[in-house]
């Protein structure tokens, strides 16, 4: 008899919808607190927050300053602009692969 694997679920910090972990994007504050990046591998050390891979959730996260609440630290606007650049590049790559 084959054992079925449990699919890990995570909650989007923008729309609060629970989805499979691999369907969401992970944003990480590194362990030393020096940087906040978009983690495409899912393996970067640090505190992670998840958002849906859609523009609406990214804009909702940015508008509501959700990362500050999630990471318990003040996030300035240039961090959001850097994340937006990474998000746009990732969306372009996903669109090209389809």
Would you spell out the secondary-structure blueprint of this structure?
Elements: E1 9-11, E2 18-20, E3 24-30, E4 36-39, E5 46-52, H1 55-63, H2 66-71, H3 77-97
Antiparallel strand pairs: 1-2, 3-4, 3-5
Account of the 3D structure:
There is one protein chain. The protein is an alpha+beta fold and 98 residues long. It has a single domain, classed as YlxR-like (Hypothetical Cytosolic Protein, Chain: A). It contains 3 helices and 5 strands; from the N terminus they run βββββααα. Strands 4-3-5 form a 3-stranded antiparallel beta sheet. It is globular, with a radius of gyration of 14 Å.
In CATH terms, what is the fold-level topology? Hypothetical Cytosolic Protein, Chain: A
Number of self-contained structural domains: 1
- Principal-axes shape call: globular
Number of helices: 3
Task: Assign the CATH superfamily.
Answer: YlxR-like
State the end-to-end distance.
Answer: 36 Å
Query: Can you count the beta strands?
Result: 5
Low-confidence stretches: none
